[in-house]
Amino acid sequence: MILNFNKAYSFFSTLSVITLLLAKISPVYFWVFGLLAFLIPIILSLHFIGLLSFVFFRRKIILLSLVVLLTGINHINSSIGVGYFKKKTSAVLNKSLTILTHNLGSYSFHSNSNGSYSSQMNFRQYDVICFQEFVKSNSDSTIQNLAKTAGIEDYSYVFTGKKMTPKNFGLLIFSRYPIINSGKIAFGLNSFNGVSYVDIKIKTDTIRVYNSHFKSYNLKEAKSITNYLQRIKGAIVERTSRAEEVLTHISNAKHPVILVGDLNEHPYGYVYNQFVNKLNDAISGTTYIFPQTVSKFPARIDYIFVDRRLNVIDFGILKTILISDHFPVYSRVEY
Q: pTM value?
């Protein structure tokens, strides 16, 4: 009986390590590797429980769980953390930038009162505000009305989006500081997704902010099992290839960068890990257990990534703001 248990535990541990390693391979080569990432939190949870059981059963084979957990240590850090932010001295705060990102979920400022959103948020406490899935009229009246009710009429802004009839849909960035340059990384002519960026001037410093919205699975429109799998495959592969484009663009940036937005991917996926290989996840300075940025299911798909030359001094998820199925996320960084 003990022999069978040891074999089974050894086999499960081996499969776990193989899964963790295969999930590190780009899904562009084989998209199923992208699906393996969904198993990672389950695998890590089971091995954590297994390691705890060693206290009671004292079976050495259970120590294989420690090997599995060490193999997936980076995934553990993205789910559970005990962080420490730099002390907020006056000198630190005087050289800090506060940024907010929010996927509005196509919230319409035409059919809803701007005040219903603005009254819940103190927008002036944020230096840079990034929206995804912002719906505006063909003119800029929607943006200007929002700025007025939000009390940020003096902020500069850049909208990048896809023209629809009779509205436009896309990415919006507001900045308290002058925008001296802007651009976009288009994800195809017919895509609703993409990345926009601005260079903002803060006295003698310049910081580049990327506002991103990556492809979702869009499974609601799937008409069959085959179509269901095709949509999953398409989203995984496209997110991977687009992330490589964005990372190349970031590598060529002349100034420190902050990337925010909706990756439509959990923090166990390949795309997320590509970004944290180059940038810091702003949440890493907080104490957290499985943080959630969407209201309908327990997942984190909205992020703020910060250049390693910048220090994160605050981070938060505003779970009381319910105008969208996404919660606003903010961070304060020292530049």
A: 0.90
